[in-house]
Amino acid sequence: MKLKEIVPWGRSFCEYRDMFLLTDDDLQRRILGCGDGPAAFNAELTETGGSVVSVDPVYRFSADEIHSGVDDARSQIVSEVTKNVENYIWDSIRDVDHLVETRMAAMELFFNDFEQGKSSGRYVEASLPELPFENNVFDLALCSHFLFLYSDHVSLEQHILSMKELCRVAREVRVYPLVTLDGKRSPHIEPVVSDLRSDGFDVSFENVRYRFQKGAEEMIVVA
Prior knowledge:
Layout: H1 13-20, E1 30-34, H2 41-47, E2 51-55, H3 63-83, H4 96-119, E3 123-124, E4 138-144, H5 156-169, E5 170-176, H6 189-198, E6 203-207, E7 218-222
Parallel strand pairs: 1-2, 1-4, 2-3, 4-5
Antiparallel strand pairs: 5-7, 6-7
Helix pairs in contact: 2-4, 3-4, 5-6
């Protein structure tokens, strides 16, 4: 897949559980979703009484404006996925039409929640590598489909600064996936891991349950 820029595209609560191996105990923790965009995770977790804050620069826009961005992204993504169907696992998601249906259903949950969630402080306009939070205010930070995926758009220096910032505001950090848009392991992983370990962080890799993009089988865990 080739995208000219980072696009708004959201996933569901169930997908987050599988992408990050979230246990019931994890869902009781204070969670930060970084780069969540129009994902349904915040809305669905909040509905069950969970504590979650999502950050994304796209939250400076209105729901209608974000929806317009999603419509633009949808045409790009459908075109790219259709040209590269062999790079995906068509199991829980059956085909391109089902992909769009699944994603749009998740994002509608976000849109229905956005204005209320923004006014209550659950959706915060912010972007890595600088977050407007105190040290260790979160138990767990999740970063889905931003770092490492967009390695052609985000430099190694920005990756290192971003990972350290996530480690500053949360006691544990999980990032998925570790492959780029074209399905190759990100070239930023090893230098990022080396830098984090030299600063005393424990870094590990874990296989996840989620399967869609071929090769995207691991998350990185930093504590």
